[in-house]
Amino acid sequence: MSKRILHVVSNVAHYADPADPTGLWLSELTHAYHEFERAGHQQRIVSPEGGQSPLEPRSLKWPNIDATAKAWLADENRMALLANTASPDQIDSADYDAIYFTGGHAVMWDYPGASGLQRITREIFERGGVVGAVCHGYCGLLNTRLSDGSLLVAGRKITGFSWTEEVLAGVAKKMPYNAEQEMKDRGALYEKALLPFTSNVVTDGHLVSGQNPQSAKATAKRVASLL
Question: What secondary structure does DSSP assign to 141-207, as a single string?
Fold first, then answer.
């Protein structure tokens, strides 16, 4: 049976320094989009403000780019989806069975304060829908509260890009905060793989999270299996 999935992407194009570009880590979207498409599901893309979602330049280069990302870049119709994403006020959460937060460092700036996305996430989650996040996408869950006022992540197992991986990637000094620590401070039961940059997916009920770009395909498969 076909399900409806809402992908979340960032609107941010750079780090704190405007001359230092970042954006959506493309394969974290394309792996999931391809997986859900194969399963016959309907999909839409939303961002905190709607409109353009810039791409992380590093995600478009070897060895980070893969066949699904290359195919997306070569498809005008696919690229148009990222040029004109929906805004949260255009989305009725009742239309969706899952929400899936993609990553890229950009999301650290616009996901945590996106109240419209928090509303959609809360409504999908409380209805029993699947909430998924990959890599930095878990920043979109930092401040989401349920109807009783509790944080969605409190007391739940979750993973996402680790501080060790930030350091090894050489970008720790650019980070506005330590996402791993922020999750722990909110009572999340943060988990990570023994080795950095290896695939790791954590499931807690209908909350699914992947640690890094290497986890994108496995995370999407886990979300699809729950759907």
Answer: GTT-B-TTS-BTTTT-EE----HHHHHHTT-GGG-SS-HHHHHHHTT-EE---SSTTS--EEEETTE
How far is the C-alpha of 137 from the C-alpha of 142, rounded, in Å? 10
In the numeric block, which tokens belong to residue 113?
A: 């304060």
End-to-end Cα spacing for the chain: 9
Specify the pTM.
0.97
Q: Are 24 and 54 in contact, with CB atoms under 8 Å apart?
A: yes
- List the one residue out of 113, 88, 133 whose CA is nearest residue 176: 113
What's the Cα-to-Cα distance from 39 to each of 36, 134, 147, rounded to whole Å?
5, 19, 32
pLDDT tens-digit series, residues 106-143 = 999 999 999 999 999 999 999 999 999 999 999 999 99
Tokens coding 79: 């690229």
CB neighbourhood size of 54 (10 A): 18
Determine the Cα–Cα distance for residues 134 and 152; give it in Å rounded to an integer: 16
Section 99-106 average pLDDT = 98
The set of residues, in sequence order, having a beta carbon less than 8 Å from that of 45 and lying 6+ positions away, is 6, 7, 8, 9, 29, 53, 81, 82, 85, 86
Contact 120, 147 (CB under 8 A): no
CA dist list (Å): 108 to 60, 74, 160: 20, 28, 12
Q: Is residue 35 within 8 Å of residue 224, measured between CB atoms?
A: yes
Position 85 confidence tier, pLDDT thresholds 50, 70, 90: very high
